[in-house]
Amino acid sequence: MSVLELAGYRYIETPVFEDTELFTRGVGESTDIVQKEMFTFEDMGGRSLTLRPEGTAPVCRAYIEHGMHKRPQPVRLWYWGPFFRHEAPQAGRFRQFTQLGTEVLGSDDPAIDAEVIALLRDVLFDQSDVRELRLRISSLGTAETRREYAEELKGFLRKRADELPPDVQARIDANPLRAFDSADPGTQSVMTDAPTLLDRLDPEDAEHFAEVRALLDEGGIEYEVDPALVRGLDYYTRTVFEFTSDALGAQSGVGGGGRYDRLVEQLGGPPTPAIGWAAGVERILLAAGSAPDRERAGPVFIAVPKDERRRQAFRLWYELQGAVPVLMGEPGRSMKGQMKQADRAGARWTVIVEEDGFELKDMESGEQRPLTSADEVVRAFQQ
Length: 383
Ligand code: HAM
Fold this sequence. Notes:
The chain has helices at about 1-5, 20-25, 30-35, 55-65, 110-125, 145-160, 165-170, 185-190, 205-220, 265, 280-285, 290-295, 310-320, 335-345, 375-380; strands at about 10, 15-20, 40, 50, 75-85, 95-105, 135-140, 225, 235-245, 255-260, 275-280, 300-305, 325-330, 350-355, 355-360, 370. It is α+β, with helices and mostly antiparallel strands. It has two domains: about 1-140 and about 200-285, Bira Bifunctional Protein, Domain 2 (BirA Bifunctional Protein, domain 2, 2-Layer Sandwich); about 295-380, Anticodon-binding domain (Rossmann fold).
């Protein structure tokens, strides 16, 4: 992802599985991810391993293990790869999905918060054309502020318990913040009166958040402050943010993240403030507008009507490959089948291999013109 490389981010690849403990400690025992979404198994040595459900804890582990705190700080990293969560599959939600992510370790400067948010916006909006994009931000303060606030919120919810459905009531003690997430109209109306964490921030955290907002304003990045923004992972402190697309259904989150100033230390490293995000690549694709020029940017398709023209077709394929995207049909398969295949591949041009030359077909207009040699075909794509 060149936008990230240009901004000084270096690629990091971590293993697809890690010790289970990294996630139970890192992501948090009370989270849905740890309680019910991990693919956990034992290896032959009896160790408990887990297919990574997210990338932040693994990157922190790598930062500690490879002594990256000795490098000039902050360390800017990006990653891309498969992640696994045992969730009920539905549109935009998969058990194996692809995340593009960044982590910046070693600075608590609000400018880094604004930087990563701006980069995610750039990836989603400028680079991918995600439609109906919205950015919500909030601050969760420190773990201590959160604990005190959670107690206050529990008290508030208990007082209003008779207005809440049983599932929300059941979660009051374990995770009162989840009440903000409830789809139940009664709960939603109760929550409009609830105290917010933003009003309870320490002065330094409030000042940090104000500076992040000022920087986003400076960059002309539009956002909504949403005091009810709850992220599904326990490690967050201070700034949290989420981009959603109304073009998606229920699974509207395309990318999100936040600060996790204590996580590296919790995992056994030196105190290291850090922030990052991850975006779901499948969701980006689902929410991306399809620009007309992109629709037909597919390969040049070589249709081979007869088996005996395989060699001629192969020679053409060999000459075109490397110069243009090219895909060869199955020699001898019906022309109808091959044209369908060309269409599915999004081919703008198809070259039909004839007995004594080629036909170049424009897949948009249907127009055809004869070309006598492979060289002529190659030249047609070099102009
Ligand atoms: P997350 O919000 O859990 O954050 O996931 C990030 C993105 O991954 C989501 O916005 C969504 O697009 C995509 N995603 C999550 N689960 C699925 C799924 N089952 N199917 C398809 N897409 C999915 C994290 O994972 C944090 N590690 C982000 C972060 C990095 N925070 C700090 N640094």
